[in-house]
Structure formats: structure tokens, C-alpha cells
Predict the 3D structure of the following.
Amino acid sequence: MSLRHWSSFTLALAASSVSSLALATPTFPATIRNHLDLAYQPPCTLCHATVGGGGPVVTAMGRSLLARGMVANNDASLQAALDRLVTERVDSDGDGTIDIDELLVASDPNTAQVSNLADVPPLEHGCVGQIAPRGRLGAPAFAGVLAALLLLARRKERRERPTASGQSCLPDPRGAVAPDPERKIE
């Protein structure tokens, strides 16, 4: 397979991987609200470090959901993981109240301190983070780095390839312009 074909393949792989990052899981807050019949929409901080979501799942409840099969962009996996939290009576923060019971009264299952999740205004677009293990770049980052390296190699190959006149495409380091052998002098 030529360098050109490898470059095209890698770019397509990188584009498809990166697009999954951009689309993350905006439906999860509403899915939690609907599945548990909550009167409020839980904030992205239920699983992520920031109010706007984004980044990996870092909270205790988020990790509990991951451990019970939650998968990014899959509402059914989130619903099944929530059901497992109920049947297993999971208490992610160790305060003596199971996570689902805390959610039902709008308390944060990630902290033993009293907090009201209903006071956090919901985002219109949902969470924008990707569920990913910490400390690993994953396939999208690897594909992006590989694509960049292949593009650089391809660019270098093109610049070093001789032209039809046999001259290199590289500029003269002294700044001189090479004469065009096909140009007619009048």
C-alpha cells in the first residue's frame, strides 16, 4: 500500500474517531431524569468534573455506572446500569444512603455533604463529555498522531521528489531561484 493510500486511510480513521468525541452523550441527563421519573434534570457533574460535562467520567457515581455497563452514546446501557444500582443498593459516596435514593430527593450521590441537585440549572444540550478511562489516550488520539506523522512524511516525500526537469522542489538555501528550463528567452 502506498504512502498516499495509508495517509487517506489514517485520515478517515482519525476523522471518524474524533467525531465520536464531539458527539459524546448529550442525552444522558434527560435519560436519567426520565428513567427515574425525577422532577429535575441532573447536572453533568453527576459523572463529570465540570458543570458542562466534557472529559472522562471521574465521580464516584459515574464510576459505579461504568462498572455496571454504562457505555457512551448508549441510553439503554445507562438505564440498565441505573437499574443495577438499585438492585445492588450501591452507595458510591459511602454515606449510608443508596445512590438512587439520593437522586430521588435531589441529593448528590457523590458526596456525603448535603447538596441540592435541583438547584443546578440544566444545560440545554446535555453533557458533552466522553466516557473514557483516565490516563489513556485511546484510539482517537493515536489515530490523530499517526495521521499527522503520515502527512508530514508525505509532504517531505513530495518536496524531495525531483520535478520533470530533474530539479528538486526544495528551495535553494541561498534564496536563489532556479531557472525554468522550459521558459523561452526572447
Remarks:
- The two ends are 47 Å apart (CA to CA).
- The CA atoms of residues 41 and 115 lie 15 Å apart.
